[in-house]
Amino acid sequence: xxxxxxxxxxxxxxxxxxxxxxxxxxxxxxxxxxxxxxxxxxxxxxxxxxxxxxxxxxxxxxxxxxxxxxxxxxxxxxxxxxxxxxxxxxxxxxxxxxxxxxxxxxxxxxxxxxxxxxxxxxxxxxxxxxxxxxxxxxxxxxxxxxxxxxxxxxxxxxxxxxxxxxxxxxxxxxxxxxxxxxxxxxxxxxxxxxxxxxxxxxxxxxxxxxxxxxxxxxxxxxxxxxxxxxxxxxxxxxxxx
Amino acid sequence: xxxxxxxxxxxxxxxxxxxxxxxxxxxxxxxxxxxxxxxxxxxxxxxxxxxxxxxxxxxxxxxxxxxxxxxxxxxxxxxxxxxxxxxxxxxxxxxxxxxxxxxxxxxxx
Lengths: 241, 109
Hints:
A: elongated; B: mainly alpha; 61% helix
């Protein structure tokens, strides 16, 4: 029983930095704390450390500032693209797969580009700006997805077409996690492309005004140098050894 | 000016001297105040004190009692000593005419 409890304590301690984990687990062994008290001590420290992270602005930008609204808006793009593609596939032969009106094709192309660039940039920026609060950012992204999945009533489309944006977003997150960086020139080119596509959609009346927020994660790495917060040395890792 | 808990930590560390580390400081505080000091409160406050330059911490050696895991050793800096002395003097000055202090003095006399 004690072994199971101790394993649980070690799992909880994974939320701490390796240095602090070593110190705190050593303290618990030395004082021979009961399993329950040990869990209380560790969870207390973990909660304090998590709360400390929210003293800065970056978690607020990443979670409620970007992940939550971008998730809603990108779901809109996902549905619009899925619906358009479905119509083309179903009625493709009658209408001609490449429509006679190039304007419609351009709108679809712009929507696809906006979805790809903005979802990738949102994933990259959210992960880079505040890595240690990524779980909260992920929850802020998935809650709107869950809400919309439960309310989705379009019979001609499968529910999961709402989640089309998750593929480029997850690719952006993985890129940042692997330590990938994007130089300013490339970031600028991507942001500019997304902005032009959104402007085209706006001119054609296919853009909701709030969708302009999607260019924030695209422009963020172009304007401000993204310093992944894994590079920052947390205070408790500054302990001299 | 220091907070009450910050003062307790600095005082405990200064009293323990070379042996000041997490467990020993928690025990000293519990003994003096009659209240247990949580690990979370201890280490987050130590971080704050270190950021203010009032203490210095480093990784000590592991011992068999700790399963070979390292300790976080603490040393009070000169700035920490000055801050603790200032806090102590302020407490003494403000408590000078407090009823409980006067009663204590009379009792001593």
